[in-house]
Amino acid sequence: MKQNLVIVESxxxxxxxxxxxxxxxxxxxxxxHIRDLKKKTFSVDIDTFQPQYEIPADKAKVVAALKKSxxxxxxxxxxxxxxxxxxxxxxxxxxxxxxxxxxxRRIVFHEITKNAILDAIDHPRNIDINLVNAQQARRVLDRxxxxxxxPVLWRKVKPSLSAGRVQSVAVRxxxxxxxxxxxxxxxxxYRVTALxxxxxxxxxxxxxxxxxxxxxxxxxxxxxxQGAKLTISDIQTKPVKRVPAPxxxxxxxxxxxxxxxxxxxxxxxxxxxxxxENGCITYMRTDSVNLxxxxxxxxxxxxxxxxxxxxxxxxxxxxxxxxxxxxHEAIRPTYMDKTQIEGNSQEKRLYDxxxxxxxxxxxADAELEKTQVNITIDGLDDYFVVTGEVVKFDxxxxxxxxxxxxxxxxxxxxxxxxxxxxxxxxxPLQISATQRFAQKPIRYNxxxxxxxxxELGIGRPSTYAATITTIQQREYVSKGEVLGxxxxxxxxxxxxxxxxxxxNTITVGAERGKLRPTDTGIVVNDFxxxxxxxxxxxxxTADVEKRFDDIAEGKxxxxxxxxxxxxxxxxxxxxxxxxxxxxxxxxxxxxxxxxTGFPVTVKIGRFGPVVQLGSTEAAEKPRFxxxxxxxxxxxxxxxxxxxxxxxxxxxxxxxxxxxxxxAGRFGPYVAHGDTYVSIPKGMNPLEMTFEESVILxxxxxxxxxxxxxxxxxEEADMEILNGRYGPYIVYKGANYRLPKNMHDKVRDxxxxxxxxxxxxxxxxxxxxxxxxxxxxx
Length: 777
Description:
The protein is α+β, with helices and mostly antiparallel strands. 36% of the residues lie in helices and 24% in strands. It is built from 21 helices and 28 strands. The strands form seven sheets. The protein has a six-stranded antiparallel β-barrel with strand order 7-8-11-10-9-12. Strand 17 and strand 18 form a beta hairpin. The longest helix has 28 residues. The two termini are 23 Å apart.
């Protein structure tokens, strides 16, 4: 056995590091944490708050192999990541493998390059127990919140729900934004623009400095412009400098990758992890915007060589985020002269984004000249404004432009202006007053939610991907497309002395990729907010993060923080469990059914939001109906709720079987015997005809016939089906892929030929299981 054993947490990282070390080093992976809290039990001693760890069954072989290798090595080097999570991994390894402190070294590095690895080996340190305790405090506090709150939600709302410290606050942000949208009462306005002509025929676009509240005001203004003279009264030109954004931190990378590349937060972190482990970028979990001296020098050389010395401006940014958890350098390429990398297209695109942002941060300011021209209207106080912008020196804009924020008005555009002079007369070709609708607050997308969480100091950027994924998986939040609604708007145009009015349509409220709370998310949020205000308080959650920072710096014992929290939290749990209410949490009374007089309520049922007609206390059992997609507990009306009880609808008979339209857990459907067909989006199950229902059933039957290519009978228990990736054999519950050379003669295959295919693949399930174990490990 080699004298030195290096343990990292990732096999990809191990493979990269092994290339930089000599033959006397063995590099092995722990495949993440080798020890964790027990999954199905609380695993925290309430008296001491000490966690109770276990080695998961799927890590037993990994631990055994590491123990054997460690016992044979002269020195063990623990090289997990340099943040708190990485420090905890090293600590668990030292504990479980029973490593001798005298022969154990802890090494850290923020980039996987030969120089960085060798430098780390030259400067080892001990495990930082303060960082470990900060990680343990977070893990234990989150376990307390999850294990104590989730059963309360099962009892009060519905089974299988969960609560988490950061995820619950993230849901609160999304719920509050939704209510802002619902309560929004904006006023429409009229925006006035003009197309003006100079003496030489050049045309200018201008906008009035004032907006009108009503159609009458806008029309009156247009009449006042009839025959009026327009003259340039003022020209202001001023230089403007634009400064490049700092290099990426974890959160800014997540935001820009979402804006520019369309990546989800989880996707960005996964790709960044791959780039780091392959030695392409520095460590991707960081709050720092600092760059190393080596990077500054390399950037200067690249900029000077590729663009010229005038584009160089060396900068050192300083982070404004407090916290000892993160690494101490921004996310950057490990080699600044490497503009492209090998890898898949997504990795290449993310690397390109990181390279450009880093290079741009070390480039000169962009120099622009901004001009504003005021154009007076004879006899009126209002005036038109024309703006123009000229780039005198592009500077960093040659490489990178930072994404504009969603809140910026996209209608504000600047252009290069022709020569203009004060006193110059302009001819109005057309002056238009266009009706505009006040914009509702914008729903969060993943990028803007990350920005808000960081702004409030909630959680850590390294946890945002998991948080956003969890709240969607738990179905507290959904992400999708909103088609919007068509609205009519007026345009009044003055041409010459004539004013024409036209009516057009515009789609408003259309959205893609926005986060919306589900009914379950809203009900859970309201319940937690009413019963556990501290957990849902933004300041409290941010304060917890600061106390974790204090633990990491050795300023506070971690068990004291947990004890204080638990002593305040546990009585609230007991109180909420023992509090009884006449109504279920989230239940809303809509009124009474005019026909029967029965009460109509909406609430969260076992399978989601439902309408209940009747009472559980009455002699007649109540009826239930699922809400349709797009309907909400908070906004559904009595009339809309009663409409749902028109389902199921018996439409008639087709091929001797009834055709029924119903609504279930996954939405409306058409049933025909054993065939169930989901009703496509855009079709209203309450308005569908018998013919439309039959078409859906017939289409599904045809699809099933095309899918079932050949059946060998019940005794053989074998069938050939057509799947997403081509035909395959189903035999005794197991699937076997057909070779491509058999695809053209599927219907002619014999039982013997199929058995030969099955027998040739008998070994593959075992091999697949082995690969699955290796991935899990």
